[in-house]
Amino acid sequence: MQLNIKSIKREGQLEFDETVRLPRIAREDVDIADVGPVHVKGTATWADPLLMVEGEINTMITYICSRCLTHFDRPLTTSVSVTYTTDDVQADDEIKRAPDDVLDLTSDLEESIFLAVDDKPLCRKDCKGLCPECGGNRNEQTCSCDTRKVDPRLAALKDLLSDDDSE
Fold first, then answer.
1. Which of 47, 49, 89, 97 is the most exposed place for a label (fewest CB within 10 A)?
2. Can you give the pLDDT at residue 167?
3. Domain containing 63: what range?
């Protein structure tokens, strides 16, 4: 998403309302399968030599559950607030250097979304995950796999308690 800095300087303020695609988010986050169209609404205000961009981001994120690997959708709403300057002296970690003609907000929008997404998404709070033995989704089916952990030091004793009637 790009903003024309010259028109913002001329008008003093510019309101924007756009929908963009940000495919990089799904490529870089293993817990995200897809990001729907990103709706951005906000204002860019010129206060010489500062340019302040503030807005709200709305989108639909298709996550991959970190326990059962099921895909599920969840809406995401977050804000973006960035300050730019045309003065090289004022530019630092908090205030970014703005180009002279066109400002590309793509990386700032991506950063806001990256900071707002779930770090360990779950399809539901009580997700049971996958069976470590058969790989079945425990939310959809129950399996009869024995998932009890046996202390490796005591594994040899397991053979003494066999169910075989021949002993």
1. 89
2. 47
3. 2-116
The widest CA-to-CA distance across the chain, in whole angstroms, is: 94
Tokens in use for 11? Answer: 């008008």
Residue 93: pLDDT band with limits 50, 70, 90? confident
Q: What is the pLDDT of residues 14-46, one digit of tens each?
A: 999 999 999 999 999 999 999 999 999 999 999
In a domain, 124, yes or no: no
Examine residue 68 and state whether it is found in any structural domain, yes or no.
yes
Q: And the tokens for 12? A: 């003093």
Of 40, 24, 36, nearest in space to 81 by CA: 40
Lowest average pLDDT, out of 5-9, 97-101, 135-139, goes to 97-101
- DSSP letters, the chain, are -EEEHHHHHHHSEEEEEEEE--THHHHH-TTEEEE-PEEEEEEEEEETTEEEEEEEEEEEEEEE-TTT--EEEEEEEEEEEEEEES-TTT-SSSEEEPPSSEEE-HHHHHHHHHHHS-SS--SSTT---B-TTT--BTTT-----------GGGHHHHGGG---TT-
Q: 162 in a domain, yes or no?
A: no
Q: How many domains does the structure of the chain reveal?
A: 1
